[in-house]
Amino acid sequence: MAARSSRTIVVVTGGDARALDPDVSAGSRMLACVVQMTDRRALATFPLPRRGQLATPEIVVDEPGTSFSSPRWSPDGRLIAAERRIAGGAAEIVIVDPRDRSIRVAASLPGGRSASPVWTPDGTRIIFSAAVDSQPFRLYAVEIATDVISVLE
């Protein structure tokens, strides 16, 4: 018989938010997540609430016909890498600055789907998976300073 966990699970979001894909920033001050809407997923952030308190995600980017997923804070806690899927288009890796809500495309492979971004510990690259045309998913890296993409196999 398996032992029961003594951990407590607490709700941190309130209201009607349908939040998923959470990531905690360096220093555990902010959360990034996506909020499910009728026809899309918006990118949101909010301060990590204290025990017993609830928070409402603040939408950072909400584009019609676009779904964000897998938001990941940079090691310095200033930027967010995420997958952005535009309806009828390719899925790409974007970098979002939540302070000014700007978006920069970091990786977009023609005929491909880029997903699952993760920052390297030094913040100079984003590692992601991508499937181009009928090929299987492979791992890639994009250099943040130059936007140069390389295969990691």
Please name the defining characteristics of this protein.
153 residues; mainly beta; 4-stranded antiparallel beta sheet; 12 strands; globular
Walk me through what this model shows:
With 153 residues, the protein is mostly beta strands. The chain is built from no helices and twelve strands. The protein has strands at residues 19-24, 30-36, 41-47, 58-61, 66-73, 80-86, 91-97, 102-107, 112-119, 125-132, 138-143, 149-151. A four-stranded antiparallel β-sheet has the order 1-2-3-4, with no helix packed on it. Strand 2 (30-36) and strand 3 (41-47) form a beta hairpin. It starts with 18 loop residues before the first strand and ends with a strand.
Major sheet details: 4 strands, antiparallel
The topology string of helices and strands comes to: EEEEEEEEEEEE
What integer value in Å does the Rg equal?
Answer: 17 Å
Quaternary arrangement of the chains shown?
single chain
Shape label: globular
Kindly report how far apart the N and C termini lie.
43 Å
Average pLDDT, all residues:
88
Which class best fits the helix and strand makeup?
mainly beta
Topology readout:
Layout: E1 19-24, E2 30-36, E3 41-47, E4 58-61, E5 66-73, E6 80-86, E7 91-97, E8 102-107, E9 112-119, E10 125-132, E11 138-143, E12 149-151
Antiparallel strand pairs: 1-2, 2-3, 3-4, 5-6, 6-7, 7-8, 9-10, 10-11, 11-12
Brief characterization of the structure:
0% of the residues lie in helices and 50% in strands.
